[in-house]
Amino acid sequence: MLERLATRRSRSLLSGAAIVTIAALLVSGPSALPAAAHARQGNHRSASGHRGRNHHGGRTSGHFANRVFASGTTVTHPGGNGPEPVSNPDDITYLDGHIFVGFQNGVGPQGQPSSTGNTNSTIVEWDRHGKLVNQWDIAGKCDGLTADPGTHRLIATVNEDLNSSLYEIDPQRSATPVHYAYNESLPSNGGTDAISIYHGEILISASAPGTTGAAAPQPTYPAVYRVALDDATHVATLEPLFYDEDSATVANRDRAQYGTQVSLALTDPDSNEDVPSYAPRFAGEFMLTSQGDKQQIFVRDERARHQHLWVLNLSDSVDDTVWPSDRHGAIFATDSTHNTVNEITGSFSRGEVFVADTPCGANDAPSACPAPGFPANFLGQLNPDTGVVTAVPLQGPTFEPQGGLLFLP
Questions:
Q1: What is the per-residue pLDDT across 151-209, written as a single tens digit (0 to 9) for each?
Q2: Phi/psi at 39 (nearest 5 deg)?
Q3: Which CATH number goes with the domain that contains 394?
C-alpha cells in the first residue's frame, strides 16, 4: 500500500520497475515515538476532558512489547532472475488457525515488473507458532487479502492502480489460485484494494480512482464495490456500494459540524473493515478508510435503498484498523520497510481502536517523505469520538507498520 502513496502524487509518471525492499537489520531496544507523534499527542484532551484517555476509556500511553513473528528473508519464490526472498509484506488475514500474508515482491501498482523482472506476489501461510506451512504466487501486486470463513478460501486483489483483478485460493486443498476477471472496466477508472466479507457479501475498495480519465473525486466513481464470484466462468461481477461524492454526516463529536451533512470528496479509498459488534462506536457497520483524505467512512444499512454514511475526520493518515476483542492476545502487523511480520502483545482493552498511522500517506505530505511533521509509519491508537490518533509506545525492534493489522486472542 505504501507504494501507492507516492504514485498517487505522480501517477502519470508510472513506468518501469518497482524497487524491491530488502530486509533491514532489526535494532533491539525501545522503539522511540516519532517526533511528530509526540507533537500530536502533546496536551490533547479527548472529548471527555481527561488527558491520556479517550471517551470510551482506551489508553493512549500503555506499554506494549513488539517482536518479529516471521521474516520474508526466510521464504523464497521464483523471481525474475531465479529464486529470491519474498519482500514488501502488506495485507494480512487469518483462516482456520493459520496466518496469511501477501508479499508484493517489488511489483508495481499497475503490475509492472520489479527491478529483478519479477511480476508475481506471494501469499505465505504460517501457523500460530511462525512455522511456514505453504505459499502461492499470483500475477500482479497483491494489495488486498482476506479470508472468507463461509467458503474457507482466501480472496486476493492485485494491481490497486490499474489492470486490476482478483484471485481465490483454497488453502485446504493447496490448489492453484483461481484467477477472476472483472465483468467490466472499473467505472472508478482505477483499481481494487482491500476486501471485507460483510453480511455474507464481498466488499472491495475502489482504489486509485481517476488513474485514467477524469481526476478524482467524481460523483460517478464508486468508492466500494459489491462483488459476486461466478465459479463456473471465473468472472467477478461488480456493483457499486456508494460513491466518492455521496453525502455523509460528520461524526466528530468535538467539532461544531458534528451531525451536519457534507458531500464527500474521496480520492484514496483504501483499507476497509467489518466493525466488530463490541466496538465502542459504529459497531456492526462497514468502514472504508480513505487514506490520503484522512477520513473513515462508516456505512449503516448497506443493503437499504438509502444508506446512511458517517464521516470521521482523522488527525492523521491511517491505513488498517483493528479492535482487540480480548485483554490478552496479540496484534499481528506487517512491516514492509523491514520485511517482517510483527507481533504486538500487552494488556489490551476490549474494543479500543488501533491503527497503522501513515503520515506520508496524506494527500498534503511532501514528495520527499519522511520529513519534518511527517514521520515514518507508527502504531497508533484512535479516539473514535474525535478522530485523534496518538502514538503507542513499543518495546522491541524498530517497527513501521505498513498496511495489514490483525488481532488474535
A1: 999 999 999 999 999 999 999 998 899 999 999 999 999 999 999 999 999 999 999 99
A2: -65, -40
A3: 2.130.10
Are the CB atoms for 331 and 343 separated by under 8 Å? yes
385: phi > 0 → left, psi -120 to 50 → alpha, else beta; which? alpha
pLDDT digits (tens, 9 = 90+) for 90-139: 999 999 999 999 999 999 999 999 999 999 999 999 999 999 999 999 99
User: Which structural domain, as residue segments, surrounds residue 73?
Assistant: 2-408
Contact of 90 with 98, CB cutoff 8 Å: no
Q: Report yes or no: 208 and 161 within 8 Å, Cβ to Cβ.
A: yes
> How far, in Å, CA of 20 to CA of 377, rounded?
19
Whose CA is closest to 107, among 119, 117, 122? 119
Residue 217: which residues within 8 A CB-CB, separation 6 or more?
209, 210, 244, 245, 264, 265, 266, 267
Asked if the bond preceding 187 is cis, omega within 30° of 0, the reply is: no
**How many structural domains are present in the chain?**
1
Rg of the chain (C-alpha set)? 20
Q: For 168-237, give the DSSP string.
A: EE-TTTTPPPEEEEESS--TTSS----EEEETTEEEEE--STTSSSSPSP-TTSEEEEEEEEETTTTEEE
Question: Could you tell me the three cell numbers for 333?
Answer: 502487523
User: Three-class SS string for 130-182?
Assistant: CCEEEEEEEECCEEEEEEECCCCEEEEEECCCCCCEEEEECCCCCCCCEEEEE
What stretches of 244-377 adopt beta strand conformation (E)?
247-250, 261-263, 269-274, 286-290, 295-300, 308-313, 318-322, 330-335, 340-346, 353-357
Q: Is the peptide bond before 83 cis (omega within 30 degrees of 0)?
A: no
For 35, phi and psi rounded to 5 degrees? -60, -40
- Residue 332, judged by CB atoms within 10 A of its CB (0-12, 13-18, 19+), counts as buried
